[in-house]
Amino acid sequence: MIEFRPFAVRLIAALSVGLVAAAGATAAGQGASATNAGEMRLKLTTVMDPTGFEKPMAAARTVIPADWTTKGGVIWRVNGGDCNTGQSVDWTATSADGKAMIRMLPSASWQFNNQGLPIGRGCIPAAFTSSDQYVNGFISQLTNAKITGVERDKQTTDFLSQYPFYTEMPGDPYMKTWWDAASVSFTYDQGGEEYTAAMIVFSMHNYTVSGHSYGFGAPMEMGYGMAMNQILLAAPTDEFAKHVPAFLLFLKNYQVDPEWQARMNKHSAKMSKDAIETSKKISGIISSTYSDISDKSMISWRKQNESSDYLQRETSEMIRGVETFDADTPTGQIELPSGYDRAFQLNDDTFVVTNDAFYEPFRDSGIEGRELNVTQ
Known about the structure:
By secondary structure, the chain is α+β, with helices and mostly antiparallel strands. It has one domain. Helices cover 26% and strands 37% of the residues. Strands 3, 4, 5, 6, 7, 8, 9, 10, 11 and 12 form a ten-stranded mixed β-sheet that branches. It has a six-stranded antiparallel β-sheet with strand order 13-2-1-17-16-18. A hairpin with a 3-residue loop joins strand 16 (342-346) and strand 17 (350-354). The relative contact order is 0.20. The model is unreliable at 1-11, 27-36 and 282-320 (pLDDT under 50).
């Protein structure tokens, strides 16, 4: 099984352009988690691996609104059957009112065949051929769920159409493997209230057919696939737009811990040489394309919202982009909304962005802190 490198999850931010359509359907609202007009407070949060190595380790860090809570982390599935073994992430951040959420879902796998043969234990019996087909199957468990939009980034689609993401072997047996990535918007009902969600997914698909050239009997068809790096962003429909800045900041700031990644690399060294080389090639492609695609995502947001009146000024400005500040973080930097005049890091590992020219951390928040400078 191929696992993406740290920047893989960050690449998913490129597909967040699908949030535009989702947010466009929502009502007006103030900036996400604003403590008062013209201010937003955020905090660093850690995704933990509690059991993978000799001691609990930080697997990743990112930014969420200061009043959100989290649960879960890295999981190691040992007895999950033929399709659900190995390392994955099951982590959720939830808003203070319990309605909005960011969920990192564990990978899921499926198998199929046309001979009535049993599929592997723990596998989904399905023949999904695209990321949005998988999402359609995923949301079938929700009430009144309906897909409202599917977005694919062209540059992402282009590199997924090349080796090693796409391979085809003609003949008998005929084999084909391909990858897909999409941001899928949908609505569903929960507790008598309509919710809007965006689900960002990478998926791998394999199809094999044999016996088709023999001229007798039905050829045997079979295949398998996997959905990975799944991120679900959801909120009540009339509040979705106000949470979009928090969703984007989570994606933009997601960083895998280098020490944990080193341990994962050592663990993965048991893979075959071919698998290692393929993984390195995938990592290289993702690393070289993330920056440009992410910038394009921000441009799309800006164009969508400059002429829109469904967001108030603070929310609209936060969506226009992020700015990098020097900060006391593992990377030495932090991405914060660019629509504010000042940014502060407080001593409790929270951050405040504000338009208040007279803001003082201890006086106004009760915690000492320092003002941050934009990274040069």
